[in-house]
Design a protein that fits this description.
about 150 residues, mainly alpha, two-stranded antiparallel sheet, two-stranded antiparallel ribbon, DDE Tnp4 domain-containing protein, HARBI1_dom, metal-binding, metal ion binding
């Protein structure tokens, strides 16, 4: 489970919990939940969107496995939706796809992630964390480069 910024960089990640645990269970039991609850994380203060003067808070975008909270957005239920609800769901789905795209970019770059690793769980965790660090480093050092060009 991961948090990804708009530049496809991983800003928080949990690697290695049991495969039967849901994302919501992992989130509820991880240190991120605790620091958000205690307000000991440097979460950005609300600020205006481009072309507006009203402060808008930052949110997490989550799927329906998560509980709705003041700092978390998720899709409207699919029953009896208005046109505005459908537009909101479409836009939120596009935003949530950033996480999927970040994993896809990283997996194409580090193709060891595309197959089953024949290693101990601890070593797999280390490999995944190393790939994430390298993925972020490439994104920071070469932000405007085409992925294929960087990988060559």
């Amino acid at each position: 489970m991961a948090l990804v910024d708009a530049d496809y960089k991983f800003i928080w990640l949990v690697v290695g919990p049991d495969g039967v645990a849901s994302d919501a269970q992992i989130y509820n039991e991880c240190e991120l939940t605790e620091v958000l609850k205690n307000k000991t994380i440097d979460f950005p203060y609300p600020e205006p969107l481009p072309g507006d003067d009203r402060n808008i808070p930052y949110f997490f975008f989550a799927d329906n496995a998560f509980q709705l909270k003041t700092d978390m957005m998720k899709l409207f239920p699919f029953r009896n939706m208005t046109v505005e609800d459908r537009i909101f769901n479409y836009r939120l789905s596009r935003t949530r796809s950033l996480v999927e795209n970040a994993f896809g970019i990283m997996s194409q770059r580090f193709q060891i992630l595309l197959s089953t690793m024949q290693h101990s769980p601890d070593n797999v965790r280390i490999v995944v964390q190393a790939c994430i660090c390298l993925h972020n480093l490439i994104g920071i050092r070469l932000p405007n480069m085409n992925i294929n060009h960087v990988d060559r």
